[in-house]
DNA sequence: CATTTATTAGACGATCGGTCTATTAAATCA
DNA sequence: TGATTTAATAGACCGATCGTCTAATAAATG
């Protein structure tokens, strides 16, 4: 049963094979921007449509609902950062601890680039949970669990390299980091300043080196 | 010029002398509950009105707008916690560090009591800043600054008592605490669990004792 | 009782998320 | 080519809900 042997269907085929569409992609892009800025509830479909230059009718061609759209945004955002963490944490040109520092520096630069107007999509939606459809909860928790797991791996490498005290539990440390880091991102957005990020990062590194 | 000598105005007098009103108070109570749960944007006036058992028309008699209502809620919430911190941090039956631990334990118990459905009003609105009227920003920053200042005082007392290392800067530590603690509250709400609070608190105390 | 003001009641327009039908575009097979 | 089939766009439309406002009512006054 070769895929190539399946007879082509009549009629117009999808624009691209694997569910890809430029229109769809621009909806996702615009959605990510707005949701990192304003969250899910406060963001109307219309403003996303306007930014993306896409008529409303198209939206419901590509997505079943606003909720399904949100689900996809969380997935993409989670995967994007998972990839970013993976890249930083596998950079063997640096020591394990320096990889974490580099990730933080990258995130700080990103927040500054957007004038501290955009936060973390997962943190934003987490804060909104009281007003969000329940299925979002597990999805958001899973993203944090994934990020934490990757971070714990890098911390274990740092431990093996003798960069941080071996009394620490890497999983606890990773949890501590993501709990606090999300707080720092929130605060940086509120104060429009990078100093909360620096304050937290500095404290974190002081802590783990002991 | 005695206040009592001011001639009474004609017409129906206010229900109570000093701007107090049971109706108004119940609006504030209901508002605080909903805003700690769902934030400002996602909370409709109608649901607050319904809980408080107050007709919509009355709301705009007591408050100029939803925004003015929010401003007052932030003030009240900020002052409520300022008082709470003051009580804990002036409790001379405990050591300075134990006072902070007691405050944290109290907050953990409060979150558990509400089944982790309510977060911090200031943190919630901070996250929403992208969608909130600009004047809220300074107000929220000021509340954090106040809480941090009180916390720094207690940390200095702990330093004087030799409970924490003197290399630490108390102001930095207080900033670090509130940055991370808000992250922990957010996460606890998301995961419906107290463990993020415990994870952060434990890490924080480990850190400051060195 | 006429007057004044507190308080309530609900109408109001705007906008929300979501659905719908109609139309246009692009590929197919005969 | 031309009829056919489906992808994709276009935007009118719906009920619900948003925050605001005006008109009416209630309660006190001199």
From TrEMBL, chains A, B:
GO terms for molecular function: DNA binding. SUPFAM superfamilies: Homeodomain-like, Tetracyclin repressor-like, C-terminal domain. The keyword DNA-binding applies. It holds the Pfam family TetR_N. InterPro entries: Homeodomain-like_sf, HTH_TetR, Tet_transcr_reg_TetR-rel_C_sf, TetR_C. Residues 44-63 bind DNA. Keywords: DNA-binding, Transcription, Transcription regulation. It comes from the Bacteria. Residues 21-81 form the HTH tetR-type domain. This is TetR family transcriptional regulator. It comes from Sphingobium limneticum.
């Amino acid at each position: 049963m070769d895929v190539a042997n399946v007879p082509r269907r009549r009629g117009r085929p999808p624009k691209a094979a694997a569910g890809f569409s430029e229109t769809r992609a621009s909806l996702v892009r615009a959605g990510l921007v707005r949701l990192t800025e304003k969250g899910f509830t406060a963001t109307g479909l219309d403003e996303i449509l306007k930014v993306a230059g896409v008529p409303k009718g198209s939206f419901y061609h590509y997505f079943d609902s606003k909720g399904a759209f949100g689900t996809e945004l969380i997935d993409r955002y989670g995967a994007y950062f998972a990839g970013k963490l993976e890249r930083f944490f596998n950079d063997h040109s640096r020591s394990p601890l320096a990889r974490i520092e580099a990730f933080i520096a990258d995130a700080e630069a990103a927040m500054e680039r957007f004038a501290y107007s955009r936060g973390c999509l997962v943190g934003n939606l987490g804060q909104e949970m009281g007003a969000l459809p329940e299925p979002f909860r597990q999805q958001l928790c899973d993203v944090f669990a994934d990020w934490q797991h990757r971070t714990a791996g890098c911390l274990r490498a740092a431990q093996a390299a003798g960069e941080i005290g071996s009394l620490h539990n890497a999983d606890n440390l990773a949890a501590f980091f993501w709990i606090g880091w999300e707080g720092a991102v929130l605060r940086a957005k509120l104060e429009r300043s990078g100093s909360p990020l620096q304050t937290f990062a500095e404290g974190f590194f002081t802590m783990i080196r002991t």
